[in-house]
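Our consortium's second objective concerns turning raw sequence data into structural hypotheses that experimental partners can test. To show how far this objective has progressed, the report includes one record in full. It was chosen at random from the queue rather than selected for favorable results. The single chain below, 339 residues long, was entered without modification.
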Amino acid sequence: MLPKVKTLRKGVVVYLLLVILFPLLLADSYYHSVGVIVGLHAIVAIGLGLVMGLAGQISLGQAGFWGIGAYTSAVLAAKYGVPPVLGVMIGAIVPGIVAFIVARAIAGLQGYYLAMATLAFGYIVQIGIAEWESVTGGANGMISIPPLDIFGIGSSEVSMYYLVWGVVTLVLLFSLNIMNSRVGRAYRAIHKSEIAATSMGVDVAQFKLSAFVVSGMFAGLSGALYAHYMGILDPQPFGLHESIKFLTIVVVGGMTSIWGALIGAVVINAIGEILIVLGEHLPWLKGDIDTIVFGAILVAIIMFMPEGLVPRVRSWLMKSKGDTRSEIRSEKVEMETVS
């Protein structure tokens, strides 16, 4: 386990250096805003990775939880004068409660049926936001959402960047701790075989429920931060398009890797920015072409690299170092210690 701990520490150090240096190396505020969006997407993707990669559940409605968190915090702050910081906290809690209710309702579903149920949930949330005009503003959206200003932090692009990535870091460390704990081993056991996990004394239903709730809270937290960062909201970003994007981020980075969610967020958003630049010169690349591109990437990854980028790179490095046998022994030990 010691080599893994050393590798984890090195990864965290490199990650922190990149996060700190990014706005210093790229001084343009445009890149800072892109960095904020990447961080917000990474928070959602890390939660989705816990559900899909560790607990083995499929969710196509993550944008719904994102939207619930965004509108909860925005409505509380803009219409009822609740401090944005408190609104963000409530914006994380409410989606967690909704996730608990939804998870209990669809607890018996698996595979395609689970995917369709979560997809329907996402549509219900988006339609509800659009139709509840008295609260959400409906299709016209909301304006004048107060910024998240904590002792001056969040009042500029750079400060908001560091604030968001500070939250990303906390979410990342929390998730890494889960992954390396008994809970994480139970999640992986469920992902590999629910029957085997049950035989080892793992409460499959409760662990699935906890993963879904944590994922919903992460998405809600990201949505609340998004609302106060943008200052305006409308129902459009909280539909199927964003759910597919979140799913693509997780699959591209690697569903079984927490780091994969971060890498996937960077890669997919970089591709999105490239498409925007190309769209200025090639009109046929404008519109919803990014949805088509993300869908094509998703299919290609599933066909040719189902484990994702981070696990594939890690596998290459392990083979080059001859660590395959030690990794197999480590997995066996994890399975034995779940119970």
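The partners drew two points from this record. Residues 324-339 have pLDDT under 50 and may be disordered. Residues 33 and 266 are 13 Å apart (CA to CA). Both points have been shared with the crystallography group to help prioritize constructs.
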